[in-house]
Amino acid sequence: MEHPDDDTARRLTALEIKAAFTEDLVDNLNEVIVRQQQQIDLLVREVTDLRRQGSEDGGGATFRSLRDELPPHY
User: Fold this and answer.
1) What is the pLDDT of residue 68?
2) Which end of the chain has fewer CB atoms within 10 angstroms, the N or the C?
3) How far apart are CA 12 and CA 5, in angstroms?
4) pLDDT at 19
5) What is the largest CA-CA distance in the chain?
6) What is the distance between the terminal CA atoms of the chain, rounded to a whole angstrom?
7) d(CA 30, CA 23)
8) Banded pLDDT at 3 (limits 50, 70, 90)
9) Using CA of residue 48, residue 53, residue 54, residue 56, what is the dihedral sign?
């Protein structure tokens, strides 16, 4: 029969291992979030620049149907 202290030590070790893996996972997820936020910030700047360019070039893009863009063999 196992001693209660042995069982407690085993359970404590298992919890420490889980905590270490969880901490590593949280760190990795945080890095992903930071990278995604940087990408979002870049995209927002690009969209803002494109909108600014469009307003400087005459008030925006004109509407064109995709059917007008079909290649000649259609």
Assistant:
1) 72
2) N
3) 10
4) 98
5) 85
6) 82
7) 11
8) confident
9) positive
C-alpha 52/C-alpha 57 separation (Å) is 9
The predicted model scores a pTM of: 0.60
Residue 58 tokens read as: 């005459």
Amino acid at 27: D
The Cα 63–Cα 56 span in angstroms is 17
Could you say which DSSP state residue 54 is in?
A: H
At 34, the amino acid letter reads V
Torsion of Cα atoms, 11 then 17 then 18 then 19, to 10°:
110
Long-range CB pairs of 51-59, under 8 A, 24+ apart, other chains included: none
pLDDT, one tens digit per residue, over 31-70 is 999 999 999 999 999 999 999 998 888 665 566 677 777 7
